[in-house]
């Protein structure tokens, strides 16, 4: 038995080692960092312990800009993408022919490199001295534009970022929702049809309650994912996000750590913990609402 | 409401084979008189559930017509047919309470049929009272037993006062005791409401006990439509004879020669009006009479005493079934030490069938 | 009671409604398919337009009559795309391989072996799933930097080799193997390691393959950590590489060459996806989040 015990730990050793060094230790360390004032990464010394890092970050206009950007992004993309995915999935579930083809196509963005395809979005929306770009061509058909979506007004840049973010997160949501829809027993629909239930009412009274756990899962993961937005923004606006006014919270953390204005792990740590607290709070609120309103099977 | 099926046919594309089709329902023609309870009986895959789906409109027939009364409803979508359907798994909405489940069909009514809230409540409670579940209205389906769920499903089907009530294997998910109780319950509710009802089952005992008439099906083709006792006493073919009855009918290879039925080399029963030919013989378990002078001599295997009756298990070289089961009154004394048992036969419990077509061959008793 | 004309009207209306609904559904689904596919089409199209033709189009054209592969040649010569590509392949394969070596025994221990504190350790593992990467990446950066491992494959790979989620996924799968197989193997004197290699792995191959593919996708697209840890072009992966190309590569305006590079980067994963479509989609549906 004693020998077996040791053997089990031996099997676990690599995982524990890696997780310990790269997850558990950093987790503790990041809190320490966030309270060490005036930490110098070169000499590894600091002046004292306190909340200064938090206060600095919370008063940094770049951080406030990043919070604002992230919040706008979250509040627009999560509802839009979830609703859009719901409609597409319901449509997809109602057809037979071509269904597989559509599903495959819809999933493509998931397996593409966010950075690479973001660049395509950039050129679609970009206005250059040579050309107004494709998006402006479309706008022109309605007599509007041209607008520089990449280097132009704030709302235009935010719009492109939202569009790209929605495009990127849709595959996962469509996949999860079509799965949820397929798991609803066909008999419920038959029963409802025989009782003369209209399609709208079937959707509201049967489909929605039955898939509500999955919808909720998507909203929570959507919130968390959108709060961590970063590479989508880099893909479209380049690495200097502060200059483009398009930085996100995660972008701010990395910029503090490394890059143009980097070298401040303490500030980065404080920002990371603020992000963590925000995400945790929202998850808890979500879970509380869920307990009240979601049907549990 | 009278229901008429006219040359009803339904084919499906065969799975995995392009172009080929499977016929689930083949040229059905029959009429269900107003207020009757009809049992659709057959082994699984015989097309009885498809027939039900055609009647309620969930599937469209490939050919033929369906009438409710004088109305041709063949192409009418299910919601306009006014049918109530009880599913095998009940299909109660798990997120709604019992009351909400029963109210659900009523809330769909629109226009001139729309009901007031109070009227809906009244009707829901009426339906609940009919199936005796008034005490469970605020529960959810997961908090109910199988039998209770079954009642809710029936209440939900009845609450909109359907013209036709359809039940798809409604008892198959219940345990034996509940099954007995529920089937009497269904019979009572049907009698009280007088709604024309179609009941699908693979259990012959269930069909016999509950139906006004039975439709026996096999491979999408109707075998016989009759009163339960008639189907049992007067089967049209070997399939029907074998499908009904517990213990099952015993089947032998036999031959008719000169007005006498032979099983093996022994003349067992005089039969009139049958030309000389090989036949398949079916004998109901209660058709055997232990009789020392009897001509059907079987190898005795076991005698099981069941109180009022005795079940005699035996074998015979000409039998097409592994064991012959006969039920006789306990008054008979069987010599269990004897290697054989001799039977004489009750003529009206013996059926002759054609070897090829398996159709019934009538004979007269002398 | 309905009359027959009434029934006819209802029937016709129902049929008409059904047909209209189908048409609308297909049209909308096709529209979304177009939105998904269009960026891919545009990137392919732009990558085969010549530099001069592209810049001469004040109004972008939706097709080209004189496709050229010049941009692809340029993508491989003017910038070290081949190097980025190779780096990514090395990084992806090494990370995935090491990950399997780390997580398979761990999942096996949790699913099959008995030891004191198993429940507690597993709960701790699960708790780690909640920890966002952003929280730990700061210290990891400092750790790797202080070990002087920046701009090295070791530094790139080490923090990426464990995934608690995949351990969990494999453990669940391993547990579906009936106990009898393990006992039978024990009676025959099979060692645990041999049982793992000869019985568990072959039976659970589909899940192992799924995990492998998901990890490959994750590695191929990873950007944040590689960007932090490398500032020497010789160690750039494709994500960082494409960013570098955009900002300092061909000169800002050579978009066709940039698109050629984007195509080259995107193709391997799309091919992988088309081959393992069902596995990937099933795996992602079981809870794989991007990144």
Q: Report the sheet-strand fraction of chain C.
A: under 5%
The CATH H-level homologous superfamily of chain A: MetI-like
Helix content of chain A: over 70%
CATH domain fold name of chain A:
MetI-like fold
Determine the mean pLDDT of chain A. 86
Q: Give the overall shape of chain C.
A: flat
In the predicted model, the low-confidence regions of chain A spanning at least 5 consecutive residues are none
Q: Which term fits the overall shape of chain A?
A: globular
Write down the Rg of chain C: 26 Å
Largest sheet entry of chain C: none
Category from helices, strands and their pairing of chain A: mainly alpha
Q: What this model shows, in words?
A:
The complex is a heterotrimer of chains A (297), B (366) and C (291). With 297 residues, chain A is mainly alpha-helical. Chain A has helices spanning 2-35, 52-59, 61-93, 99-107, 114-125, 134-141, 154-182, 186-194, 199-227, 231-237, 249-257, 265-293, and strands at 36-37, 48-49. Chain B is an alpha+beta fold and 366 residues long. Chain B has two domains: 3-240, 3-Layer(aba) Sandwich (Rossmann fold), CATH 3.40.50; 247-361, no CATH class. Chain B is built from eight helices and 21 strands. The two termini of chain B are 46 Å apart. The longest helix of chain B has 18 residues, at 176-193. Chain C folds into two domains: 1-37; 78-285, MetI-like fold (Orthogonal Bundle). Helices cover 74% and strands 0% of the residues of chain C. Chain C has helices at 4-47, 51-56, 70-77, 81-112, 118-128, 133-146, 153-157, 164-174, 179-187, 192-203, 205-221, 224-229, 238-248, 255-275, 277-285. In chain C, α1 (4-47) crosses α14 (255-275), α3 (70-77) crosses α14 and α11 crosses α15. The longest helix of chain C has 44 residues, at 4-47. Chain C starts with a helix and ends in a 6-residue tail after the last helix. The mean pLDDT of chain C is 87. Classes of the chains: A mainly alpha (297), B alpha+beta (366), C mainly alpha (291). Chains in contact: A-B, A-C, B-C. At the A-C interface, α1, α3, α4, α5 and α7 of A face α1, α4, α5, α6 and α11 of C.
């Amino acid at each position: 038995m004693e020998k077996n015990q040791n053997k089990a730990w031996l099997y676990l050793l690599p995982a524990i080692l890696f997780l310990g060094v790269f997850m558990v230790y950093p987790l503790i360390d990041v809190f320490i960092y966030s309270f060490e004032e005036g930490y110098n990464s070169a000499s590894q010394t600091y002046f004292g312990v306190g909340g200064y890092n938090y206060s600095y970050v919370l008063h940094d206009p770049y951080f406030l800009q990043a919070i604002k950007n992230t919040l706008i992004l979250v509040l627009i993309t999560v509802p839009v993408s979830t609703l859009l995915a719901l409609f597409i999935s319901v449509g997809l579930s109602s057809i037979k022919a071509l269904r597989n083809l559509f599903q495959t196509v819809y999933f493509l963005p998931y397996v593409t490199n966010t950075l690479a395809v973001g660049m395509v979005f950039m050129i679609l929306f970009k206005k250059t001295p040579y050309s107004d770009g494709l998006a402006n061509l479309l706008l022109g058909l309605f007599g509007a534009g041209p607008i520089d979506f990449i280097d132009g007004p704030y709302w235009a840049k935010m719009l492109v970022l939202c569009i790209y973010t929605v495009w990127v997160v849709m595959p996962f949501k469509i996949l999860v929702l079509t799965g949820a829809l397929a798991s609803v027993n066909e008999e419920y629909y038959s029963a409802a049809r025989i009782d003369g239930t209209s399609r709208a009412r079937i959707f509201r009274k049967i489909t929605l309650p039955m898939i509500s756990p999955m919808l909720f899962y998507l909203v929570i993961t959507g919130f968390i994912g959108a709060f961590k937005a970063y590479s989508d923004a880099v893909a479209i606006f380049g690495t200097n996000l502060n200059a483009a006014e398009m930085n996100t919270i995660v972008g701010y953390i990395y910029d503090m750590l490394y890059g143009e204005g980097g070298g401040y792990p303490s500030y980065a740590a404080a920002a990371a913990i603020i992000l963590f607290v925000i995400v945790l709070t929202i998850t808890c609120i979500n879970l509380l609402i869920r307990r009240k309103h979601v049907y549990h099977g | 409401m009278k229901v008429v099926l006219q040359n009803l046919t339904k084919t499906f594309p065969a799975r995995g084979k392009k172009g080929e089709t499977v016929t689930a329902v083949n040229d059905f023609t029959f009429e269900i008189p107003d207020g009757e309870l009809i049992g659709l009986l057959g082994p699984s895959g015989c097309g009885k559930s498809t027939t039900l789906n055609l009647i309620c409109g969930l599937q469209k027939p490939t050919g033929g017509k369906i009438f409710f009364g004088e109305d041709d409803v063949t192409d009418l979508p299910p919601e306009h047919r006014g049918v109530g359907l009880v599913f095998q798994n009940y299909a109660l909405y798990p997120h709604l309470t019992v009351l909400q489940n029963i109210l659900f069909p009523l809330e769909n009514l629109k226009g001139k049929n729309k009901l007031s809230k109070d009227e809906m409540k009244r009707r829901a409670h009426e339906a609940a009272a009919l199936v005796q579940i008034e005490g469970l209205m605020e529960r959810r389906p997961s908090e109910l037993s199988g039998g209770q769920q079954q009642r809710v499903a029936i209440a939900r089907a009845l609450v909109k006062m359907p013209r036709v009530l359809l039940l798809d294997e409604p008892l198959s998910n219940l345990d034996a005791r509940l099954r007995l109780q529920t089937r009497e319950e269904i019979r009572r509710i049907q009698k009280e409401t007088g709604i024309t009802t179609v009941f699908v089952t693979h259990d012959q005992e269930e069909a016999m006990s509950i139906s006004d008439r039975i439709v026996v099906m096999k491979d999408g083709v109707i075998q016989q439509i009759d009163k339960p006792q008639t189907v049992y006493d007067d089967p049209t073919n070997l399939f029907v004879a074998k499908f009904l009855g517990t213990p099952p009918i015993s089947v032998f290879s036999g031959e008719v020669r000169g007005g006498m039925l032979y099983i093996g080399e022994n003349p067992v029963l005089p039969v009139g009006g049958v030309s000389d030919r090989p036949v398949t013989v079916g004998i109901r378990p209660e058709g055997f009479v232990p009789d020392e002078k009897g001509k059907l001599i079987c190898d005795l295997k076991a005698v099981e005493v069941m109180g009022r009756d005795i079940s005699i298990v035996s074998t015979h070289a000409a039998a097409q079934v592994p064991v012959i089961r006969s039920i006789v009154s306990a008054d008979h004394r069987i010599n269990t030490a004897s290697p054989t048992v001799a039977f004489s036969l009750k003529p009206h419990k013996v059926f002759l069938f054609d070897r090829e077509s398996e159709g019934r061959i009538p004979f007269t008793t002398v | 009671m309905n009359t027959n004309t009434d029934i006819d009207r209802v029937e016709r209306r129902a049929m008409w409604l059904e047909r209209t609904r189908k048409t609308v559904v297909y049209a909308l689904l096709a529209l979304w398919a177009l939105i998904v596919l269009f960026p891919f089409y545009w990137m392919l199209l732009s990558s085969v337009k010549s530099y001069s033709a592209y810049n001469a189009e004040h109004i972008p054209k939706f097709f080209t009559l004189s496709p050229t592969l010049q941009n692809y040649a340029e993508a491989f010569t003017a910038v070290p795309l081949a190097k980025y590509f190779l780096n990514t392949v090395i990084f992806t394969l090494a990370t995935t391989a090491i990950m399997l070596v780390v997580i398979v025994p761990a999942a096996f221990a949790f699913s099959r072996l008995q030891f004191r504190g198993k429940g507690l350790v597993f709960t701790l593992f699960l708790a780690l799933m909640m920890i966002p990467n952003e929280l730990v990446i700061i210290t990891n950066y400092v750790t790797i930097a202080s070990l002087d491992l920046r701009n090295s494959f070791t530094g790139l790979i080490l923090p990426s080799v464990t995934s608690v989620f995949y351990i969990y996924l494999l453990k669940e799968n391993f547990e579906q193997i009936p106990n009898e197989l393990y006992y039978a193997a024990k009676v025959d004197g099979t060692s645990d390691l041999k049982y793992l290699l000869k019985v568990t792995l072959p039976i659970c191959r589909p899940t192992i393959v799924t995990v492998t593919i998901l990890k490959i996708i994750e590695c191929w697209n990873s950007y944040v950590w590689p960007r932090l840890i490398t500032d020497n072009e010789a160690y750039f992966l494709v994500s960082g590489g494409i960013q570098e190309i955009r900002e300092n590569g061909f000169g800002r305006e050579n978009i066709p060459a940039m698109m050629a590079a984007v195509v080259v980067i995107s193709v391997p994963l799309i091919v992988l996806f088309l081959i393992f479509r069902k596995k990937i989609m099933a795996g992602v549906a079981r809870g794989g989040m991007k990144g």
